[in-house]
Specification:
This is Cilia and flagella associated protein 20. It comes from Erpetoichthys calabaricus. Pfam families: CFA20_dom. InterPro entries: CFA20/CFAP20DC, CFA20_dom. By secondary structure, this protein is mainly beta. It has one domain: Jelly Rolls (Sandwich). It is built from one helix and 13 strands. It has one helix at 136-144; strands at residues 11-15, 26-29, 32-39, 44-51, 57-61, 75-82, 88-95, 100-106, 113-114, 118-122, 128-135, 148-157, 160-168. The chain has a seven-stranded mixed sheet. Strands 1, 3, 4, 6, 11 and 13 form a six-stranded antiparallel sheet that branches. The longest helix has 9 residues, at 136-144. The two termini are 23 Å apart.
């Protein structure tokens, strides 16, 4: 999607107050909802993704499973509200061995596990709104001993309020 786009500064893939925040996202809803609400804490529109469990309600980007994001910027930045419920997100990257690897962070896991194609890790959210920054280049190198090439897909899975999701060239 963004492979042939000049990438510098900051690239937003979800902006909750935009006119169509989920335009490039696929939405799966079963026993839950995805809706835009006004958050009482920040008095702004946010995207609420909520379901009965983490496998039934989620959003993925890009919407077309045959396409990839093609984003070369190595920092994933998200602004997420802790709703004190299970939350997980996943990002798929391509490394310099041409292998697709997934990183999954969740607030219900206590240990990090590295398998050939997926690395799962715990994530602690503070009360209220959290700015989460993931250095995908560093994670790829530390987990697999390979170099990050690009971000292919992103997935936000249930029970959160999200204000912003983007990728940057350096820490934001």
């Amino acid at each position: 999607m963004f492979k042939n786009t000049f990438q510098s500064g900051f690239l937003s893939i979800l902006y909750s107050i935009g006119s169509k925040p989920l335009q490039i996202w696929d939405k799966k809803v079963r026993n839950g909802h995805i809706k835009r609400i006004t958050d009482n804490d920040i008095q702004s529109l946010v995207l609420e993704v909520e379901g009965t469990n983490v496998s039934t309600t989620y959003i993925t980007c890009p919407a077309d499973p045959k396409k990839t994001l093609g984003i070369k910027l190595p920092f994933l930045v998200m602004i997420i509200k802790n709703l004190k419920k299970y939350f997980t997100f996943e990002v798929q990257v391509l490394d310099d061995k041409n292998v697709r690897r997934r990183f999954r962070a969740s607030n219900y896991q206590s240990t990090t596990r590295v398998k050939p194609f997926i690395c799962t890790m715990p994530m602690r959210l503070d009360d209220g709104w959290n700015q989460i920054q993931f250095n995908l280049s560093d994670f790829t190198r530390r987990a697999y001993g390979t170099n990050y090439i690009e971000t292919l897909r992103s997935c936000c899975i249930t029970r959160c309020e999200c204000s912003f999701n983007g990728v940057a060239p350096a820490q934001w």
